[in-house]
Amino acid sequence: MATSARIVVADAGPLIALGRLDALHLLPELFSEIQVTATVLAECSVHPGFIDAQRIERAVQLGWLKPC
Fold it and tell me: Model pTM?
């Protein structure tokens, strides 16, 4: 699948849902850059033991999600 040249700013709800579904890898396939505000990242990491929070943190580490 070709990456679109679009930049998207993600909200917590969709990120948490994609994290739970182990589908965060779809975002870089659809968008050239996914930016996430510090507030959204904080909301996503309220429960660091949850698998979705761990997957979101890993997506940040991999560069799929870019803090802004």
Answer: 0.87
